[in-house]
Amino acid sequence: MIEANDFKRNMMIEVDGKPYQIVDINLSTPTARGGNTIIRTRLRCLLDGSTTDKPFRSSDRLPEPDIEKTKSQFLYIDDRFAHFMDVTTYEQCQIGRSDLGDTTLYLFDGMPELQVMFYNGNAVDVILPLNVEMEITDTEPSMKGVTASAQTKAATLTTGLVVQVPAYLSTGEVVKVDTRTGAYLGRASK
User: Fold this and answer.
1) In this structure, what are the phi and psi dihedrals at residue 106, rounded to the nearest 5 degrees?
2) pLDDT tens-digit readout, 54-110
3) Which of 3, 69, 157, 158 has CA atoms 20 to 30 A from the CA of 128?
């Protein structure tokens, strides 16, 4: 059991028999004496990707869901599913494309450090690495002499993800992107 006082971002909890990931936490302490601290959370359901806001008292205790994580490799994505393979057992699994949402924009062949989460034996979600390296497939031509200023332009990457990059970058260059925010981090090291 996990006490509400111990909640942290990205922690997994079980509410009403469903697994949730804590996306955000806010604490509010009532002014009345003896009042319990209220912990307001934003939760993301691992089964369907929906989000909900739920308050808890500091004295509440919730079970930890039975989540198993396996190191996996992304294989391919079709109209309905994203397909993965466990790198130790070579077993394949699939997760609904709609369940993954924007995560699909960061999936590409040979992706390192990918983990698939299983709940009750079913693949439910993917844990991406903190950043990925992808090639720019389409952007405006690079502009000379703008390296000192902070001008940016839109660039489309191999998976269709669009990020803002410095104006001096051109098509074919490989860049690092933060998977949590979708922000450009820099050029990839060669």
Assistant:
1) -110, 0
2) 888 878 888 888 888 899 999 888 888 989 999 899 999 998 888 887 888 888 887
3) 3
DSSP state of 148: T
Of residues 125, 75, 122, 117, the one with CA closest to residue 99: 125
- Return phi, psi of residue 104, to 5°: -65, -25
At which of 34, 62, 90 does a domain end?
62
Rounded CA-CA distance 45/88 in Å is 27
Q: How many domains are there within the chain?
A: 3
- Number of Cβ within a 10 Å radius of residue 112: 9
Instruction: Find the domain containing 83 and state its range.
Output: 67-127
138 and 98 belong to one structural domain: no
pTM: 0.72
Please tell me the distance from the alpha carbon of residue 30 to that of residue 153, in angstroms, as a whole number: 47
Q: Where residue 83 sits, what CATH number does that domain have?
A: 2.40.50.140
In angstroms, the CA 136 to CA 166 distance is 12
